[in-house]
Amino acid sequence: MKPRALIGFILFLGIVVMINSKPVNEYISSMGTKGAILAFMQNDWDSQIEFLKKKNIPPINARVDRVWKGIPGYNGLMLDVDGTKDRMKKEGKWDNRYVIYQEIPPQVQIEQLGAVPIYRGNPAKPMVSIMINVAWGNEYLPSILETLKNNNVKATFFLDGSWTRKFPEEAKKIVMEGHEIGNHAYTHPAMSTLSNGRIEQEILRTNDIIQKATGIEPALFAPPSGDFDDRTVNIAFRYHMKTILWTADTVDWRKPTPAQWLSNVRNKIGNGTLILMHPTESTAQSLPSLIKEIKQRNLTIGTVSQTISSSRVQLVE
Q1: What's the angle, vertex CA 185, arms to CA 310 and CA 123, rounded to 5?
Q2: What is the pTM of this model?
């Protein structure tokens, strides 16, 4: 007899012995055999429940870091005791597949931090994002989109307003592929050198053009060349937009070889990493290798909004 079968047989004999004892007979007569056996099983479930409760994961609050600025929070996990017990009763046995957890949001979310730039997701969140800033060139977009599609990956494309005005069908195609769209200003300026009125114009005009082309109003703003100041972040926040920077830069505008391209970001890939690139030849050549490496590290690839949200990765997937 196999060990598991032997254990089950011994447990069955134990139940039979208990059922044939006088106190248990009286108990069964009041509850019925099925109910009594279920009650004995539930005693063991209670011990399982107490053990799993010790493994609850507390939520992590969003915070402002001296280096990384706004760091999003991350939901905790708490055992749903009543839901788990009800599920076990329905199944008539204990099975870890039927254990139910609830996500517990942090008390402080990234939105509550006010106008802060965001360079990364939470360091406890095993998810990264591919962010592609598009201000020029269409030659390598089809190849990049095909790679993303073949690998079932959704990226975030930050579109320049003047590019979107010239190529609305290209912008629409990116959306139809299921990718997220962000705002990359209108004329690719150094935002910190502009007047308040011009900063506002760059953001709002781009939002308007993207919405007309794709039907989407962006909620994320990536300042061109990573140039911004407090005014830029405050104005974007006033229009309910988060200012997004990056954790790792491919520096693909320098036309690196695929090996150099990967080397620029490889050591920075980890929980919450936002990886910056553009629709260049080196990116088109190197992107498949990057995706493969990320997946080999057991990291999920999500959009920027997904990575900087507090939702746990299991539910994002």
Answers
A1: 25
A2: 0.83
What does the angle CA 14 – CA 17 – CA 23 come to, to the nearest 5 degrees? 120
Does 304 lie in the same domain as 171?
Answer: yes
Assign residue 151 the CATH number of its domain: 3.20.20.370
Looking at the structure, do residues 270 and 226 belong to the same domain, yes or no? yes
Contact 273, 235 (CB under 8 A): no
Q: Residues 183, 220: contact at Cβ < 8 Å?
A: yes
Given a cut of 60, whether residue 39 has pLDDT beyond it is no
Residues 257 and 191 in one domain: yes
E strand or H helix that includes residue 63 = strand 63-65
- DSSP per-residue codes, 214-277: HS----EE--GGG---HHHHHHHHHTT-EEB--SEE--GGG---HHHHHHHHHTT-STT-EEEE
The pLDDT of residue 102: 92
Taking alpha carbons only, the member of 66, 60, 111, 68 closest to residue 245 is 68
CA 186 – CA 272 distance, rounded (Å): 28
79: which strand partners? Answer: 101
Mean pLDDT of 303-313: 97
DSSP string, 73-129: -B-EEEE-HHHHHHHHHHHTS--GGG--EEEE--SS-GGGG-S--B----TT--EEE
